[in-house]
Amino acid sequence: KWSERKVTIFTPMSDQQETGPTMRRLSQLESVVLWNRARQIKRELKQGVKKPYREVIDISWGDPQGGGIKPLSFVRQVLAACHYPQLLNSDKLPEDVRQRAERLLKECAGRSTGSYTATQGIPYIVKGISEFITRRDGGVPSFPNNIYISSGSQWSLQVPTSLILIISSFFFTGVLTPVPCYDKVNMSIRELGGVTIPYYLHEDQGWELQIEELNRALESAKGVCNPVALYVMNPGNPTGSLPQRRSSFSWLMSEFVSYKKVLAEMGPPISETVELASFHSASKGLIGECGLRGGYVELVNVDPAVMEYIYKLFSTDSCASVPGQIALNLMTHPPQPGDPSYSLYNEVIMTITQLMRVFEVLNSVPGFSCQPVEGGGFAFPRLHLPLNAIHKAKEAGMQPDEFYCVRLLEESGLLVNPGWNFEQKEGTSHFRMNIMIKEETLEGVLRRLVSFHTKFMKEFS
Amino acid sequence: KWSERKVTIFTPMSDQQETGPTMRRLSQLESVVLWNRARQIKRELKQGVKKPYREVIDISWGDPQGGGIKPLSFVRQVLAACHYPQLLNSDKLPEDVRQRAERLLKECAGRSTGSYTATQGIPYIVKGISEFITRRDGGVPSFPNNIYISSGSQWSLQVPTSLILIISSFFFTGVLTPVPCYDKVNMSIRELGGVTIPYYLHEDQGWELQIEELNRALESAKGVCNPVALYVMNPGNPTGSLPQRRSSFSWLMSEFVSYKKVLAEMGPPISETVELASFHSASKGLIGECGLRGGYVELVNVDPAVMEYIYKLFSTDSCASVPGQIALNLMTHPPQPGDPSYSLYNEVIMTITQLMRVFEVLNSVPGFSCQPVEGGGFAFPRLHLPLNAIHKAKEAGMQPDEFYCVRLLEESGLLVNPGWNFEQKEGTSHFRMNIMIKEETLEGVLRRLVSFHTKFMKEFS
């Protein structure tokens, strides 16, 4: 009943950071020290311990609402009405809110957000997403059957990944991932048994992805694993950079370019054969609803037999959270001009001036340099640390930027995310900071940062 | 940098139902025919096609709200207020609703349900769950550090499973799973590369789990895989049965017995060494909030190093949906006597009379037999089909109970779930029906069922 076959397993012998393919079952945990200390400091402040600051500002995450940004009223009113439809009878809610909630409830089994949905998501919402994508890409068609809603794009990311890994079965399967990169991407691929092959983004060129570097990375995988997929982030996390079209080099506030649109424009055979899995989530952009957990993936050029298998993988979970699905509908179909909720929805959360301000400040202080932030909610400044500081960090058993961040937290109450967590280029130091925060808070953040930094550089120079 | 080792891989040579260990990468999909036909019939009814019924009643899922049961007002009011805190200023919401929403918002970063939470869940809610478990088990302590909230218990089930499979690395790892069993359990284990070892519940003894049968199953795994875990459902799905303590054989309306409590009462060394992962979710019980996606797992006697690894596995997803987490809080801490929402919360959704009624009807009609339903929301009656019907099914390329269910749908508009999907004992036929539905609907369901069944039995006898 069972057939036997012999295979060869490769296992990595060291657990160090590599420039070549990396397979680690047990990923390094983020610098626990830093976040543990932050929790401790918060407790101490509560207990009345005197510090040079009254509260810890945590900008180590990309969590706009956690950072004090108010959720969009339209989104919250629709959610409240969907959960508790008695609210539909009150005229306290704007007309378009009530209409939208009515429409969405009509699509829920038993008119309730408490019912399971289809595996792909509520068909009406899935169809709306495909319309949104078609609009975004200037008419390049998107088909509802290729779209899956999940509880956040993190979850759905695991499906094609595990698929890739299963298809290539007993070989080691490689995925090209950028450096620096949001750590959970590498973690997910490795936990699922895959190998990550780092390619380095070119910091001095605004974190650009370069063909030569991709070739080097591919070369490095030879004899170790079988590279089958390329992972790109758009905009980059932590870098906040947007991919450039070869023709356009106007960096600041570049236009969002959809990879799917580019693929379509390349024409056959490429446009009809290259497989693409494209992720988006309600945690991103102006809506920033991280806690509701709603994301989707669109799959392009995937073989029908594989699509059937993907359906099965998604059905191992019941369905995505209905509040998350509703958030996706509101994100892809915001109020239109003339709707009662239009003006409130379009209050600009973060002004371009605010972005420019961060860029300006971080480039005017010695020891900092920062590539322009073009999208997303993060800045990823580089730290040019004195040798003394680097030695001190080594003595303390920390990475240089981790050491810097621990001191920053300790002395100024500012919590940022060390670049080390994003697998940056060996010998460089950075940190990631969430800049999607209230304008008043941002000013305070920049003040604390510059004042600490100046002191720190003086101490170690 | 890489070390090589040779291992032997076993792969199953057939994809048929087995009584021994089963490893299938591509699980059989549920009887698609049936659900496709149901969709079609719904469309036809909309288009005005004449049928002997006006609408399809879908009781193939365990989805109380999809089945017309109203959500609990307390739950929905708290959710609405948490999403849209302006509602807290209105006196239209009961005092305890506003207090609870206030309390929960205080625990959300930025006082918003749109913020990420800690990996384990919001600490206040996690702590509340541990208190609930301690209360449920009559004082057997439960520790917050052992609890993880996830987007439904389906998701969290995958974590210990993948853990088990990873730990046992390149061996085939077996998990003992009951027959019949909710299909997604086997599917998840197999998708993750594990082997399921079926053990049969004893139908005539009220679907009891028998030691001798467990021993037989273990024996069957020898030389094929390494059995490391036992999966039990309490109450059973689809069977609706509760595990019996050896001493008590009073079947009907048995008391819920927690496996964790039993483990604790067994005393050392067993109580201190046997590892237990216990799952629960807000989709279950009276609250029945399937669409919000909130579940948790409690881990008992797991090695601290492994707990650290579990933390990492959970952190590959950002966090569970906040609405789902709130639902867990409301489920584990319902309104108390004296609270304004108490009486409304405790309106009994499904009366015991209703349960008895299903049991009575299904046992009074020839060709049906049904074990008592003791918990959960399902009945799983057995079909004693005439040989002619079994032959006819084979001709149509269907399993006997699938054939029965397709005809039931076609002729009476009733959609139930064929037992075949639950990997029942070879040669038996069943179906699962959701009985957590409105009383009026249930009467209609029983009428349609008995009338079709009588006709069907006559046709084939």
From TrEMBL, chains A, B:
Q: Name one Pfam family in it.
A: Aminotran_1_2
Pathway(s) annotated for this protein in UniProt: Amino-acid degradation; L-alanine degradation via transaminase pathway; pyruvate from L-alanine: step 1/1
One GO molecular function term of this record is:
L-alanine:2-oxoglutarate aminotransferase activity
State its cofactor.
pyridoxal 5'-phosphate
Supply the EC number(s): 2.6.1.2
Per UniProt, the keywords (alphabetical) are: Acetylation, Aminotransferase, Cytoplasm, Phosphoprotein, Pyridoxal phosphate, Transferase
Q: Which PANTHER family match?
A: ALANINE AMINOTRANSFERASE (PTHR11751), ALANINE TRANSAMINASE (PTHR11751:SF469)
Query: What family is it from?
Result: Belongs to the class-I pyridoxal-phosphate-dependent aminotransferase family. Alanine aminotransferase subfamily.
Q: Tell me the protein's name.
A: Alanine aminotransferase 1
Q: Which organism is it from?
A: Sphaeramia orbicularis
